[in-house]
Amino acid sequence: MEKESSSEKERKDSRLPLSEVVSDCVKRWFKDALKEAKAGDINMQVLVGQMYFSGYGVPRDAQRGRIWITRASKTRSFWKVSDKHPGYNASDSDSDEQKGDF
């Protein structure tokens, strides 16, 4: 059996449990998302609302979650699809307009 050196033992003793590392990362993620949400980033406002609802990185608070999601829904700007037919999905290509090009 191999003896551990004192430096190896110190390194093992100084390691944090993975759950603490992950918890710290999630808390920092929430703080960063909150900063961006307060600056007006709509996607981050939705994320912060979801994090409050689920208690992910922050104590669960459904009321604050609702406030952030409502804020995002009020400020979200929807662009117009102009002359496209009803049901046109903005992510669809304009391939229906190019059918005669082949």
UniProtKB/TrEMBL annotation:
InterPro entries per UniProt: TPR-like_helical_dom_sf
Residue span of region Disordered: 82-102
Keywords: Elongation factor, Kinase, Protein biosynthesis, Transferase
Signal sequence, start to end: none
Top-level taxonomic group: Eukaryota
Molecular function, one GO term: translation elongation factor activity
SUPFAM superfamilies per the UniProt record, alphabetical: HCP-like
Name listed for the protein in its UniProt record: Eukaryotic elongation factor 2 kinase
